[in-house]
Amino acid sequence: MPIIDLGYRNWDGERSARFLRPLAITGTSLRLVWRAVWLRRLLMIALLPMIPVGVCFFMYEQIPEREGLKRAALEISSELFESNPQLRDAIVSDSPEARHLVWANLLLGFFRYPQAILMVVLFGLVAPRIISYDIRSRAYLLYFSRPLTVLEYLIGKALVLVVLLALTSTIPALGVYCLGLAFSPDLWTFFDTWDLPLRIIAASVTLALPTASLAILYSSFTNESRYAAFAWFTTWGLGWVTYLVLTSSALFSNDFTAVPKYVTLVSPYHALGQIQAAIFGTLADNGEASGAILLVSVVTICSMMIAYQRVAAQLRV
Questions:
Q1: Is the pLDDT of residue 104 over 80?
Q2: What would the pLDDT profile of 277-291 be if each residue is shown by its tens digit?
Q3: What's the pTM value of the predicted model, to 2 decimals?
Q4: Which of 120, 124, 174, 222 has its CA 20 to 30 A from that of 64?
């Protein structure tokens, strides 16, 4: 009888449920990513925008009680929100509908500006290595030596980015909402804005699915992460510049009615922002986001399908 019996053996132990298997990949990848000191610092920076947004919530909730602050808010909002008279009037109003509109716009601004830009930077630093490093080091052979499918592997990798996005956007946004409740004069504010946490989660999902899919697609095309990072930042930067060029005349004339609706489709940042605006209910017509929703859906599905084929092709080699 041989002392060392080499070869494959059947696993007689207990297997985890099928839907829990991608979490093994997610947990392993998160532990590796979390070792980077810069990542922990970047997540701390993601909490800083909560301060100015919290100050805005505090000032808005104090407006009805202080006449001087109300006059100052009226003067400031008249200049800043001249193109949005509905929001301008809501800032100095104390009605439940006005509070909901102001809170939704503050949360939308929190998502669109500091957190979305931070997401682009974070994914550009983390996502390029998420699959390309496995291809270069052939670590995928270790993953697929276990009872995992290609789809479960991709889901596990995508959940890494979803968790990071939740730490940088969803949790801070929910924290800002709680700050707004803390600064509000009474408990009835919760009943006026109870749906906003659900909208925050929906906006987070809208941001996470297409961005994670696109980042995984770029990472699956090469074993050099710098090429995937270049493609990622080029997609966002070139789209933003193209949008600014096409809308430059409207920016100078302050008349956005003449801008074609399809212009937002050239920029991933503005397309996702339009969908999030529809989720928070700040668009005059939610039908304006239909083109962006179709584009984002196609990009998400196609990215995952192509990434699936790329990873599956590695197993056939």
A1: yes
A2: 999 988 877 777 888
A3: 0.84
A4: 174
